[in-house]
Fold this protein.
Amino acid sequence: QVQLVESGGGLVQTGDSLRLSCAASGVTFSTYFMGWFRQAPGKEREFVATISSSGTRTYYVDSVKGRFTISTDNAKNTVYLQMNSLKPEDTAVYYCALQRGFRLATIRRPDEYDYWGQGTQVTVSS
């Protein structure tokens, strides 16, 4: 049974940084994407970033390019989201998710991810 556990959220001010972590357990397949999504109150869940299991492919939503970095430590089965220059519009619950296989056409779609964490709140005050 795959389990994803996020940590690292919190309350910060505009311009600050945070690093989110997602620890995965029970992953028995070798090819997958690990992604980060976010959901603000009253809005749909939005793709933020994703990384291939090899760590060689990363993809971002345009609004976070240059500010957020996704990375993976396969030895620790952990994916990170380094968030710099945070803005109030980054405020949301951030979710970690895993998509089995290698399906590039669907890596930005939350309904194409197979496993989800419980989420961690990120609040950026102005």
Summary: The mean pLDDT is 96. The chain has no helices and eleven strands.
